[in-house]
Amino acid sequence: MRYFNHFAKRSLFILAGYCFLSCVVLSRLVALQLLPSPRLKAHAKSQHGVDIPLSPSRGNVYDRTLNILSTSIEVFSAYACPRDIAPGEREGLVLKLAGMLDLDTDWLRGRLERDKEFVWLKRKLDRREEAQLRSFQHPAIGLTPEWQRVYPAETLGAHLLGGVDIDNQGIEGVELFYNSHLSGRPGLRMTQRDARGRSLRARDELFIPSQDGHHVVLTIDQVIQDVVERELVRAVEASHAIAGTAIVLDPKDGSVLACANAPTFDANRASLVAADKRRNRAVTDMFEPGSVFKIVTASAALESGSFSLEEKVFCENGAYRMAGHTLHDYRPHGWLTFPEVFIKSSNIGTSKVAQRVGSERLWQAIQRFGFGRPTGIDFPGEAAGSITSPEKWSGTSLLAIPMGHEVSATALQMTCAMAAVANDGVMMKPRLVERIMTADGRTLETFAPQAQGVVMNPESARLLKGILTRVVEEGTGQRARVKGLEVAGKTGTAQKILEGTRGYSDEDFVAVFVGFAPVSSPQMVICVILDEPKPEHFGGTVCAPVFKRILEQGLAYLSLTGHQPVRLVKSF
Fold first, then answer.
1. How far apart, in whole angstroms, are the C-alpha atoms of residue 154 and residue 295?
2. In this structure, is residue 137 part of a structural domain?
3. Residue 426: inside a domain
4. Based on the structure, what is the number of domains in the chain?
5. Among 130, 244, 287, 381, which lies 20 to 30 A Cα-Cα from 559?
């Protein structure tokens, strides 16, 4: 009996142990089948899984009336899974694919020999290449959709819009500055394969959808941009200039309605154009503005009360000796009233005005107008310009700076300076983007106009506008006159600095005209610059007519569309 009880206890103990071990083994099998560990998942993936990136659709860029300036179209890209290619078939694949995709055989062989799950063969195929690859059935070769950036208007706004790289990431212009909004978020698809390389149905947890980018709505108006580009190209060709720049700005809210450079290029073929030809000269290139800068000197004089409008300045009959240097006027003048000094664009008269104003008050005016610092426009690569403070001025600086030498500025800075005069002395921050929209068209963010400060009081601005109106009616800017319209502006002609020296060229000039209209309620400020025009090189001769043509067409268009200015937001 004792033996039986002992035997029963041993049997029960062995049976319990067997059951426990069976449960452990069974639970492990269940875990392996239903809950694979990260390590095993990674191992399985390396043998039978391929991660295929899913490109998001990049957001569109629109003009202010929602014309598409930049968009994306679906294309296909070719990829390979080198680990699924048997060594014996690799060379045959190299020869076939090289012919279909127009690829170098050595380069392609190197791609297929890599110990990788996934490699690109060729991105963004054309229709012929796509069709050929679709008819070529191989489990290790595939196609995946991507997006290609296109610019429907080709050259329109090319310098402004910029471009993207092969991965649809912005590298220049608006595409770069607003890349975080436009680019979207990429997704991922993991394709499972069996031991023979055949695709299996992907599990839902292995699919991460891409998120499309946001749309960007510019302040640019496609119609005005087209007018500006056509007239600028025409002017560059007619004047034999090496380049040209033109900007149209709404002085009331700082909106850039157009910004163009010539020569231009097709934005769809930007990779074929040298980088220095793609730069937006309006914001990157600095130049000595010449007589256009006299608006700052006139403003300083009016603000300080140094001159009355009736007071006269003796302009030395065309030659003025000071500090060991002789200053000349293009045409000799005797006595000129304060307004006539600027209407006739007398260098001598301007320097005498500046001497009475003094270096400190002139410097304060220069700072109020924003020279020597970026405007803050939403565009990459903006130059700050250059101007030294009074303690570093030489004995001739008070002669040179008031007439636009020893100072450098961008076309945008000069446009903003004139816009401040047009806007009764209030300087608006220039802006290129009006709002951001979601992929389904809802407004995500708006960019309200911002006033950056006051450059002069309204009365001084009114007096200066009167002087600039006379510049066009009876002075150096008469070729900018438009019948039946009150126009204000200022001409400028500056000698270019000789490269590698501190001297000036007697042959190469930068010609400028900046103006606005209508004077009573300005809608457009227009800046036109021609670099090295020949043989005529005066701003009033070669740039003022371009200004006039742009103004006539631009105002006619605005009157037809009935465009209304937007509400302003002060930030000073």
1. 37
2. yes
3. yes
4. 2
5. 244
**408 and 547 both lie in a single domain:** yes
What is the distance between the alpha carbons of residues 329 and 346, in angstroms, rounded to a whole number? 6
Pairwise CA distance, residues 465 & 461, whole Å: 6
Q: In the chain, how long is the greatest CA-to-CA distance? A: 145
- 490 within 8 A of 291, measured Cβ to Cβ: yes
Let me know whether 425 and 365 are in one domain: yes
- Amino acid type, 409: A
- Alpha carbon dihedral 303, 306, 311, 313, in 10-degree steps, equals -110
Q: pLDDT: is 34 or 325 the higher one?
A: 325
Report residue 308 as tokens.
Answer: 């009355």
Residue 200 is assigned to a structural domain of this protein: yes
In 305-411, the DSSP E strands lie at 312-314, 319-322, 325-328, 335-337
Of residues 403, 437, 350, the one with CA closest to residue 68: 437
**pTM of this structure:** 0.86
Residue 7, domain member (yes or no): no
State the distance between the two ends of the chain, measured CA to CA, in whole angstroms: 106
Give the span between the Cα atoms of 18 and 465, in whole angstroms.
103
Residue with tokens 């104003």: 357
Q: Are residues 257 and 200 in the same domain?
A: no
CA gap 32, 25 in Å, rounded: 11
| 8 Å CB contact between 244 and 528 | yes
Whether 247 and 192 map to the same domain: the answer is no
Give per-residue pLDDT as tens, 135-185: 998 989 999 999 999 999 999 999 999 999 999 999 999 999 999 999 999
Q: Is 235 left (phi over 0), alpha (psi -120 to 50) or beta?
A: alpha
Per-residue model confidence (pLDDT) at position 346: 95
Residue 489 banded pLDDT, cuts 50, 70, 90: very high
The β-bridge partners of 119 are: 80
Is-catalytic flag, 291? yes
Task: Give the per-residue SS3 of 475-541.
Answer: CCCHHHCECCECCEEEEEEEEEECCCCCCEEEEEEEEEEEEEECCCCCCEEEEEEEECCCCCCCHHH
Do residues 95 and 105 touch, judged by C-beta distance below 8 A? yes
Range of the domain at 55: 50-103+111-218
Q: Of the candidates 490, 550, 491, which has an alpha carbon nearest to the alpha carbon of residue 523?
A: 550
At 63-88, the pLDDT tens digits run: 999 999 999 999 999 999 999 898 88
CATH code, 189:
3.90.1310.10
Beta strands (DSSP E) in 361-487 are: 426-428, 433-437, 443-446, 450-454
Same domain, 195 and 241: no
- Give me the catalytic one of 72, 239, 291, 345: 291
Are residues 229 and 186 both part of a single domain? Answer: no
Percentage of residues of the chain with pLDDT beyond 70: 86
115: tokens are 């110990």
CATH number of 342's domain: 3.40.710.10
**In 3-state terms, the chain is what percent helix, strand and coil (to 5)?**
40, 25, 35
Do residues 314 and 372 both lie within one domain?
Answer: yes
Same domain, 231 and 161: no
